[in-house]
Amino acid sequence: MSARKQEQLWPELTVTTSAPLSTTYANPSYRASAQEKPKWTPVKVKAPIPCDECAAVQHETRGRFGPRASARQRRGFVGGPILRLCTRPANAWRERDTRDGA
What we know:
The chain has two helices and three strands. The protein is α+β, with helices and mostly antiparallel strands.
């Protein structure tokens, strides 16, 4: 008896953890370096705050990027700029920070 391979009914789902990052925040003042690392803190506000990165990508794509999510993380430098990010852009920024800090 030979085992017959059954075709898949549904295509495999791919889960993406990263999001597209805007060019607005790609300048050096927002980027991490080996000397300066950002500090991450959770956003603890009752009123929803839109994600800065989602808003910037939505602006750059002229509205073709999905809805603006609520910020869950705050990424900032001491005495420097602050970004309020939802989960997917926060993960993408963490990946960028590890590449920049190396």
